[in-house]
Amino acid sequence: MTSEELPRPALELVERSNRLGADRRNTNYGGGNTSAKGKATDPVTAEEVELMWVKGSGGDLGTLIPSGIAALRLDRVRALQDVYRGPEHEDEMHQMLDHCLFGIDNAAPSIDTSMHGLLDCTHVDHLHPDSVIALAASADGERLTRECYGDEMLWIEWRRPGFELATRMEALRVENPDAKGVIMGGHGLTTWGATSDECERRSLEAIARATEFIEQTGKAEPLGPMRRGFEPLPPDERAQRAATLAPVLRGLASTDSPVIGRWFDDDVVVDFIGREAAPRVVPLGTSCPDHLIRTKVRPLMLDLPTTARHEDQVARLQELHDEYRDEYRQYYERYADDDSPPMRGSDPAIFLVPGVGMFSFGADSQTARVAGEFYINAINVIRGAEAVSTYEPVSEAEKFRVEYWMLEELKLRRRPKPKPLTGKVSFITGAGSGIGRAIAVRLAKEGSVVVVGDLHLDTARETAEIIAGTGPNASDRAIAVAVDVSDEAQIGNALKDAVRQFGGVDIVVNNAGLSLSKSLADTSVADWDLQHNVMARGSFLVTKAAAEMLRAQGTGGEIVYVVSKNAIAAGPNNVAYSSAKASQAHQVRLLAAELGEHGIRVNGVNPDGVVQGSGIFAGGWGAERAKVYGVPEEKLGEYYAGRTLLKQEVLPEHVAEAVTALVNGSLNHTTGLLIPVDSGVASAFLR
Ligand SMILES: [Zn+2]
Fold it and tell me: Please, which of 329, 489, 509, 516 could form a disulfide with 428 given CB 3.0 to 4.6 Å?
């Protein structure tokens, strides 16, 4: 549906949803849903029909567009009550909703659709505001609801979303015709109104009232005093420690399947971890179904003070991780029955480290970020609940029912198959132009998140933008870092940026290079040093730092050198460049021999004659080489193609393709290899 075709109530629905979703105090990302009911003309019969428009499954309110809406025939949704066989069979009702859809191009109806449909109110909002969930997840939520709202808002005990909850909620509303909405135990808020404005106003008032209630009646320090030794560290120190810990944590979190990470050190997070109540409330996990699906049954919290040595922290984290996995298995076995989907990974999604912050993990970068954002929602909920009462999330049995709900399982199975490099982090040097840029773009296309390194931050940013655009969450897919690869400190910082953003690194591409085409007589010591510093020394330094990180992560890794035909074949006026390239070529073999025992593979590519988009050629080398060969500079690509066996010009994309083959699992049993990408140059055949 486009907005021109949209009837007025549906248009109002989109606008209201966007306003509500724009403020994260109203609902979490992708959380909550809204609906409107009204009349439209059936194009088949030309008759007027009553419809309900409701936000579809998985979309976000703040960015809802008409194509994210499902339109359903209201008479048919209501008729489902006649065929409902009771709570034991409520899941089958969800499939029945597909029989109620109206028109074409509908979004998939979400699990809350029946609640919107059965409530006999024109406009309905269902939201997950932190302040309201705080009341809803309190030990005495019902009493607090009455205290906070009087008769205006009703209370309904926790029940998993679905047809039974919808039936009970409508019955409650009919008994209390003056109520404006309902606080849903352990879960969130639902409000209704005769007009879109009334519904929106009631939602905002209910949220504001809960916030005020907690502020005015709650305890000043709901989570108790700060524990000694668990205080937030200064921001610089947090960042340093996060960079050292992240690969270790990512390694643990990847035990069952590879994950991407994200580090958060928001004040609310480091403060929460340090408080006296943390060891009591963290194991309780989260409450709202949205939160707990993303953050898992509970986080793993390190129980050592910030003064503990790094090695001791790592050892303790390993112990706690083993315990976590055992407990998770027991949790699964306690509640699973014959109909339950098989156990998914038993690694935590959220790690909490005193003083340093939170590390969240997920199958891709966006999932990791959202898990962290949801745990921040949960922290607000816990703090609010503890301010006015005692935090009491839904029971563990119910958590299991939500986590291993068949409908959730089906939603997971509908997800597109992951790409070959989904869950991988690539770090590429010299990626602001030419071959490096082509490699960055190609690996991103294969599903990898990319850290674009370049001496020039502006060109690195251009590459990141080509990959991820400029949207608010572009950094989920690619970030740009400035790095002079001849400078050990800059390499360390760039890798730390990578690790804080994505949790670690898996694929490292040594691509940075430069070339000055000069005869022996004209090559100065400075020329020699510059080229060796960037290529021979630079790739050594990058590999050294990256290998240390890969070993801490313990999940193997890929190191790729972009070398050159010139590492093998000799030509005039090239002594500094080609000998630096020869050093890189031998580093591939030396380091393949050394790092194999850690599962780290080291390979390279030997391109030749790549003129297009090349920073090296643009920097004067092209003109020099053209002069050496006696051809015009613009014909250099053609000239190189002409002297190859295949007579084809080599483009940056061809080199990127070879790098992809080395790292995408196709050549998993290969290390120490150099692949020529030169259209066939017999003098550079390896032997
Ligand atoms: Zn909900």
Answer: 509
